[in-house]
Amino acid sequence: MNYIRRTYTFILILLLSASQLMAQKGNLFIIGGGSRSPELIQSLLETSALQPKDYIIVLPMATAEPEASFNSIKQQITAFSTNNIGLLNFTPEQVNNKKWLDSLKGARLIYIVGGDQSRFMKAVLHTPVYAAIHEAYQNGATVAGTSAGAAVMSKQMITGAQLQDSVYRETFNKLWTKNIEFEEGMGLLDGVIIDQHFLRRSRYNRLLSALAAYPEYECIGIDEGTAIIVHQKNVNVAGVSQVLRISKPKNLKVTSKNLIKLDGLDFHLYTDGDQFKLKNQ
Q: Measured between alpha carbons, how far is 25 from 239 in angstroms, rounded to an integer?
């Protein structure tokens, strides 16, 4: 009997610990690129719930112009916030810098700038920086990103390359299987694939290609000037444009010529103030 009670107590402690970890998880503020309105910046700061002693860290590793990208977001944030803002441009020489890593872990808001998502992941994947971002997020920080900084949120990250065409195009001109390239992203969203600049660059073919590659996933296209705010399974939409979500393709097939076809899918289009729930988080 005592053994059963001890086992039950141990299981209860594990469940409570897991529940506490879930409760601690922070927010994701994922912007589809383009201009950021003052209202969107205010929403970012409200989501972060910064206290006077909290600080913000900007990660510019996706861009070749880190100082310019940092100054741009800093100028927007300081119009509404007096919290300190720091720049940590992690190079191979700095990824083990304990002082920098501790600062990253302690940030209440982490902001990933735009540029090239593959460039960002090459800088952080399999380094302590990756772990530090996850630790901050699990401890309640808001992790935000725009454009490339949005794409990196996914575990399966769209690189932008079209494998069946050697010429880069912002809009995919083919809807074929094995045409879309993925790399490992930050994995802050699992079971969700993010695409950015969505309506502006008409990336329907690319997102449909992603869904065909991962039909069990939810694929979300975020337009410019617009964001999704994610807390666990709950999502709020903010901004001037729209967010598209597709999932559950029906009778998905590929022809002998590698053409994708299906009988239907779940299709949702959201605007500012709308809410929905993710199924896989």
A: 24
Confidence of residue 281 (pLDDT cuts 50, 70, 90): low
How would you classify the pairing of strands 84-87 and 55-59?
Answer: parallel
Structure tokens, 60 = 């510019």
Residue 129 lies in a domain: yes
Domain assignment of residue 1, yes or no: no
CA distance 134 to 208: 29
User: How many structural domains is the chain composed of?
Assistant: 1
pLDDT digits (tens, 9 = 90+) for 64-115: 999 999 999 999 999 999 999 999 999 999 999 999 999 999 999 999 999 9
CATH number at residue 191: 3.40.50.880
> Domain residues for 91?
22-277
17 within some domain: no
pTM of the model: 0.90
Q: Which two tokens stand for residue 195?
A: 């695409």
Tokens matching residue 147: 């454009």
Distance separating alpha carbons of residues 31 and 245, to the nearest angstrom: 15
Q: In 10 A of CB 92, how many CB atoms?
A: 9
